[in-house]
Amino acid sequence: MKPSVKQEIERLRTELERHERLYYVLDQPEITDAEYDALMRRLQALESEHPEFDTPDSPSRRVGGKPREGAVEVAHSSPMLSLDNALNEAELREFDTRVKSLLKGEAFHYVAELKLDGLSMAAHFHEGRLKQALTRGNGITGEDVTQNARTIRSLPMRVGPAAHVPADFEVRGEVVMTRKAFDRMNAEREREELAKFANPRNAAAGALRALDPSVTASRQLNFFAYFLLAGGKALLDSQWESLETMGNLGFKVNSHRRLCEDLEELLAFIRELESQRESLPYEIDGVVAKVDSVKQQERLGWTAKAPRWAIAYKYAARQAETVLEKIEVQVGRTGALTPVAHLTPVVISGVTVARATLHNEDEIERLGLAAGDRVLIERSGDVIPKVVRVVEKGAHRELFHMPAACPVCGSHVVREEGEVARRCVNSSCPARLRESLLHFAGRRVMDIDGMGEALVDQLLARGMVKSAADLYGLTAEEFLSLERMGEKSAAKVLENIGKSKSLPLPRVLNGLGIPFVGERTAQILADYFGDLDKIAEAGVAELQQAEEVGPKVAAAIHEFFAEERNRELVRRLREAGLRFTQEVRRKAVGALAGKTFVLTGTLPALTRDEAKERIEAAGGKVVGSVGRKTNYVVAGEEAGSKLAKARELGLPILDEAGLLAILNGEAAG
Ligand code: IVH
After folding, report:
1. Hey, what domains does the chain have and what are their CATH numbers?
2. Which pTM was predicted?
3. What is the pLDDT of residue 521?
């Protein structure tokens, strides 16, 4: 018998829920985006033909509906408290000793979880369906954010019946934004000249409390569950079991968790995760340890603001305050002048920081920075520390101005149109040579270990090298004549110089220091042309045949090889025996190769066919429906559901001018 419409709608919803879980919770999709989109369209079509079967928890509602009126405060089923902190191992040991003494020597376990850097949320389920979601608020009452929560794809809107779980229950957990989603959002805000968010946490908070749920949807939030309750109390006897149960119910539970026998195991987990911290897709600020048994939790009890059975071990702050002593200008290998902050040295998570990058003069202006100010510095991963903001203005402020002449060679400085950086015009400026050599010898370039600042500075001071090619003519005797250079280190550097000759073409190309040609573009050029000489001889148009090479980059490459001193460098590197060729591996031609576009609405000047033709001529593809893998949606007048879908998925949206800019290579393809 043919299924009724109602049955068909239900079948589609269940199917879509299953795929959402596979994709957003388990990271194991079984179908393609296009297949998913097809199921979703079929559901949407049936739902709009049959509004009588409408329900707020249909997967079609994930896009965010009507804006809500304003904040509605709702009481929590039991207080949402916070956690006490342990800032170092000693404080964690104190906590452990206290737990042991309160439990009078009884055996117990800790559950170690990540302390996700987001905001907590309580999700109430009634008869297995998401009924209400609340922010933490003041801990006693929170703000109703139900419609916004529905747009969080890793939060299920319905869960099936499960053993030991009543149909009415509550899940508490953390709402976070991934670093990727955060970066994408901020890049977009920058393009739209909107204020950027300081960190993913603030962005997530803004998104969760937004009045318009479609804003929440576009921010791609995640929900990680960490408490399972009923009637305001823990539902099961063990925290570990709660996490497993929530995972089985379909909630996203962080996979970085461990049931620890004792403090030592807990400390091992803390250390392990600290080393992985920067590579996690979202930010964490520590590890939460919870006594596993709920009976024991009850015996340990609570203070006015936090449980005695849990603690947050905080990783050392990656920020610190210090004084900006002066701003100095450095000259990079392309001649770009970069202001650098010289700071009163300060230790940030074990590393002494004395300098921070300031990027350019616009950045200094944005920060409102002047020498003498007290500033907040941030270190993240391996990147150069940066100034976050001014904490307190100094007494004798000296406003910074970019110098009109190169601070190293005194040549004049230009700021080219459309560029933020100023450059020293002297191509043989000593600062440029120094930086070029350091770049050339770098680990990811020609990988000449031992050729660091100290050695390069000596070689330059003695006039022993005037270009990277000279490195290949240096002898053991010459190295031995330098300070702090023994036989062993001299032999080692020479060996490394020798070894660099066999590195592949993209390394050599990157080593040349052509403006805009870094690792990736060097690889693309090498793959397309297969021969350094062909690249050097190529015209601007030909260069743009290589994927991702636009007019600006092509012009820079062409200009570089037009200059005699650079041609000389290339000649001598060839004589030294460096690799100049490789096999040609052409991926595709055209600036838009591999990119898919969706056109929607009416464009002001181009017809749809014209737009399509031009995209295809540049190697792009035009498809009919918007999916997660669509690269761009071009929207004109009266764009409809495709535009909404694109917003929902957070895809880049172009107007006609934006499309033309991409076709002309003015924006990143
Ligand atoms: S347990 C009373 N577990 O940290 C128990 N909290 O200072 C409190 N957080 O407001 C929550 N990850 O926003 C818990 N795995 C985790 C957590 C976590 C992040 C946040 C949460 C809470 C704050 C406590």
Report:
1. 5-63 (1.10.287.610), 85-314 (3.30.470.30), 319-392 (2.40.50.140), 403-586 (1.10.150.20), 596-663 (3.40.50.10190)
2. 0.57
3. 87
